[in-house]
Amino acid sequence: MKKTVSYNIKKGLVILGMGVLALAFIGCEKDNAKPGTNPDNPHNPDNPNPQQKHNVELVYGKNPNTQWQNISMDTLYKYNSEPTVDTIFMVPEMPGQFSTHSTTGLETIATKLRERHNINPNKIFGKGDLELKYSSIENNPEIVRFFADTLRHHVIFNNNSK
Q1: Spatial distance between the Cα atoms of 138 and 144, rounded to a whole number of angstroms
Q2: Residue 42: inside a domain, yes or no?
């Protein structure tokens, strides 16, 4: 009779141990998620399908009615707040669209584009070639620095219009 009781106790302990191990494995499966992370979040590094970052190009026109006004502040704020947008580029429709502007005209455009760039100076830039009339900038090198250094346009000087 003692053999039967000890056999039943051993059998019960083995079954109990297997149950505890099963629960331990089930608990470990849930521990894979890091605390405070949401696996469905597209920006979570553990997400197998994260959304790719991309750039946005906003074109401003050559016509005085569509130059800087064509890139609204609301549009820039919207793209700036999107975490999947890496860089926002303000692109001139034509490289020579400012080549006939006076110094005053370029200062006005630079002021409006600076307002847009300042929404996020680390995310909003210019892109592409930009031709400026030499006589419009020779006494105001700040305009060139703004377009070339701040907005990162490749500035070309139109020497024919001196």
Answers
A1: 9
A2: no
DSSP labels, 88-128: EEEEESSTTTTTT--HHHHHHHHHHHHHHHTT-TTTEEE-S
* Domain membership of residue 21 as a residue range: 1-34
> Are the beta carbons of 61 and 93 closer than 8 angstroms?
yes
The pTM for the full model equals 0.65
Q: How many domains does the chain have?
A: 2
> According to the model, what pLDDT value does residue 31 have?
47
Q: How long, in residues, is the chain?
A: 162
d(CA 8, CA 15): 10
Average pLDDT of 57-65? 78
Q: Specify whether 30 is located in the same domain as 59.
A: no
The DSSP call for residue 42 is: T
Q: Are residues 4 and 61 in the same domain?
A: no
Question: Taking a C-beta distance cutoff of 8 angstroms, is the pair 29, 23 a contact?
Answer: no
> Does any domain span residue 44?
no
Residue 46 domain-assigned (yes or no): no
Per DSSP, 83 falls in state T
20-34, 87-101, 112-126: least confident range: 20-34
